[in-house]
Design brief:
5 helices, ferric iron binding, Ferritin_DPS_dom, mainly alpha, binds fe (ii) ion, identical protein binding
């Protein structure tokens, strides 16, 4: 049985995950509008992964005898100046999410809730990849000129 405190904290994380999904969907629309089909596809997949995180968290709460809820999701940014700016935002956002996951894990540790700790470790590991991927794209865009960005756009469109 999950504690009320941890249940509520996980429900807050569901809000953060859906917010992430909406943020990347918003970036996807921006990329598509600017003609970056590859980045747009990449962002849609990123968005779907974030929704999947929300589903996993909801299922976990329910399995542990808690109640999963969908609370109000804050509005996300809608405009960027360049793809670089959007990917910089992505990196910053993922760093913030990593901190949220760390706090959740600390709460699970303080409650000696081993099942929740086990569940949260996979997200800790995933955040390492998410941060590295986003910062890697930022670095590549910075190193390339504007003309080369179209090349990169095509490359990221083939994301699995
Ligand atoms: Fe996530
Ligand atoms: Fe993420």
């Amino acid at each position: 049985m999950i504690s009320k405190k941890l249940q509520d904290a996980l429900n807050e994380q569901i809000v953060a995950e859906i917010y992430s999904a909406n943020l990347y969907l918003s970036m996807s629309f921006y990329m598509e509008k600017e003609g970056f089909e590859g980045f747009s596809t990449w962002m849609k997949k990123q968005s779907a992964e974030e929704m999947d995180h929300a589903y996993q968290m909801a299922s976990f709460i329910i399995k542990r005898g808690g109640e999963a809820v969908v609370n109000q999701i804050p509005a996300v940014k809608q405009k960027w100046t360049t793809p670089l700016e959007a990917f910089e935002d992505t990196y910053k956002h993922e760093c913030r999410v990593s901190q949220l996951i760390d706090k959740l894990l600390e709460l699970a540790i303080s409650e000696h809730d081993n099942a929740s700790q086990d569940f949260l470790w996979q997200f800790v590991r995933e955040q390492v990849e998410e941060e590295a991927t986003a910062s890697g794209i930022v670095d590549r865009i910075k190193r390339m000129g504007d003309s080369a960005i179209f090349n990169l756009d095509q490359q990221y469109g083939s994301r699995a």
